[in-house]
Design goal:
By secondary structure, this protein is of the alpha+beta class. Strands 4-3-2-1-5 form a 5-stranded antiparallel β-sheet. β3 and β4 form a beta hairpin.
Length: 185
């Protein structure tokens, strides 16, 4: 009889352990699923912020005729002779100020490691084939010799870029005086 009670108690203990195992597996799956949803939402927010910085940089370049000329000359692989305002080269580099990162030759826009997950970040971290990548708005942190440490919405950590590839968002305006027709009379 005692053996039967021991066996019954042991069986109940095993059943209880099995039920607890199923419940803990279910709970851990729900926690994992919630964390995965939060991570996916976080990556989607980072992608949106990155795309906005690329679009804003493209708009800034398109709205400034000197930056636009520099960008299109790099696309055509032609040298650009006009001196533009570049932080750390001919203007002061100011920490926490936004600049345009614009390459004049094929390059990767963000570093390969570390980077966020997703096809957008994978594409931005690969070196372009023949043309330079799209411009990007970055925030300057500090100067390191002839390079600058910058942060971007497209990368999880700061990275370094050459000062040659950083431009002020506002460039000097070329205003030629308006001369009305027949002004020499």
């Amino acid at each position: 009889m005692k053996k039967l009670e021991i066996a019954t108690g042991f069986a109940q203990y095993k059943v209880l352990l099995a039920i607890l195992g199923v419940l803990s597996s279910w709970a851990s799956f729900e926690v994992w699923k919630r964390h995965q949803q939060q991570h996916d939402k976080y990556i989607a927010q980072k992608q949106q912020a990155c795309q906005e910085m690329i679009e804003n940089a493209s708009n800034d370049v398109q709205n400034n005729r000197f930056l636009k000329a520099a960008y299109y000359s790099s696309l055509m692989q032609q040298p650009f002779k006009i001196k533009l305002k570049q932080p750390g080269i001919n203007t002061d580099f100011i920490s926490e100020k936004d600049y345009i990162l614009m390459y004049s030759q094929p390059a990767s826009l963000i570093p390969e490691h570390p980077r966020y997950e997703g096809s957008l970040f994978e594409r931005l971290s690969k070196r372009t084939d023949k043309q330079p990548p799209a411009p990007l708005i970055v925030t300057g942190k500090k100067i390191l010799g002839n390079k600058a440490e910058v942060i971007s919405a497209c990368a999880p950590k700061s990275f370094t870029v050459s000062l040659e590839n950083l431009y002020e968002i506002t460039q000097p305006v070329d205003i030629s005086p308006y001369l009305p027709p027949f002004s020499s009379f």
